[in-house]
Amino acid sequence: MDELTKTEPATIYIRPAKGLAALNLGDLWHFRELVLFMIWRDIKVRYKQTLLGALWAIIQPVMTMLVFNFLFNSVAKVSSDGIPYPIFSFTALLPWGLFTTALNTASRSLTSNHNMITKTYFPRLVLPLASVLGGLLDFGIAFLILIIMMFYYRITPSLTAIWAVPLFVLLSIIAALGVALWLSAINVQYRDVGYALPFITQFWLFITPVAYSSTVISGKWQLVYALNPMAGVVNGFRWALLGSGSGPNIFLAISTAISLVILFTGLIYFRNMERTFADTI
C-alpha cells in the first residue's frame, strides 16, 4: 500500500529568462541607493581639487557659444532662424553638453571602476546609468544661464511648447545611455574606444544642428539627417524654448525611434557581455 501512495519527486527546470525579463531591469530598483551614491560620487570626483568647481558647467558652454558666434555668425553669416545667434547656439549647447558629458563619463565607467566589478556583485548597468544621470547637475546650472539670456533677449517661450522641454531632456538621456551602453561594453575588451571617443563626439557635433539651423539642410537630405537622434533633440529643444522650427514632426519621430532602438539594442548587448566583464577587465 505504501508503494502505491508514494509520489514521484517534483522536477524543477531552470531555464534562462527570455525577452524583456532577461534584461533584469528590476535590479536597478533594488540597487537604487547604489545608483544615487554613484551619482553623488561622480559629481564629487568631477570637481575635486578644482578652483572654479561647478562654474565649469557654465564656462564650457559659454566659451563654446562665443567661439560659435564669431565663426558661424560674424564670419560665416549662418542663418539662425531670425533669433539672436548667441541664444540660438547656447540653447542647442545645453542638450548637446548633457549628451557629450554623459557619453564621455559613461563610456569609461566600467574600466574606471574595475575594482568594484572584480570584487563584488551588483548590476553593472548601475555604472553607466549613474554616469549619465550625473550630468543633469551641469545641465541644470547651465540652464539658469539660458533663463537669464532669455530675459535679456526678451524671448518668452510659448506655453503650448514649453511642456515638452523635460521630454527632450529625457530623449537626450536615452540617446546618451544607449550609445554609452554599447561603447562601455566594447571598451572593456577594446580600449580603442577611449582614443576614438573624442573623434566620435567632434564628428557628431558637426552633423548635429548645434552651430547652425537644420533648415540649411536640403529637403532631400532631411530624412537621412533625422537618423541622427541628437538632431531631433536639438531641434525640439529650440522649438520648445525659442519657437524656432516646426515643432514635432515625422523627422522628430524618426530620431526618437532611432534613440529607442539604440537603447534597447544597447541593453541587450550590455547584458550579454556583462558576464565576461570581471574576467576581461
Can you tell me about this structure?
The chain has 281 residues and is mainly α. 69% of the residues lie in helices and 0% in strands. The chain contains 15 helices and no strands. The chain has helices at residues 2-5, 26-30, 32-46, 56-75, 85-107, 109-112, 114-119, 126-134, 136-152, 165-189, 192-206, 219-225, 229-242, 250-274, 277-280. Helix 5 (85-107) packs antiparallel against helix 11 (192-206), helix 5 (85-107) packs across helix 13 (229-242) and helix 13 packs across helix 14. It is globular, with a radius of gyration of 23 Å. The termini are far apart.
List the helices and strands and how they pair.
Layout: H1 2-5, H2 26-30, H3 32-46, H4 56-75, H5 85-107, H6 109-112, H7 114-119, H8 126-134, H9 136-152, H10 165-189, H11 192-206, H12 219-225, H13 229-242, H14 250-274, H15 277-280
The biggest beta sheet is recorded as: none
The average pLDDT score comes to 85
Order of SSEs, N→C?
HHHHHHHHHHHHHHH
Class computed from helices, strands and strand pairing: mainly alpha
Keywords:
single chain, mainly alpha, 281 residues
In short:
With about 280 residues, this protein is an all-alpha fold.
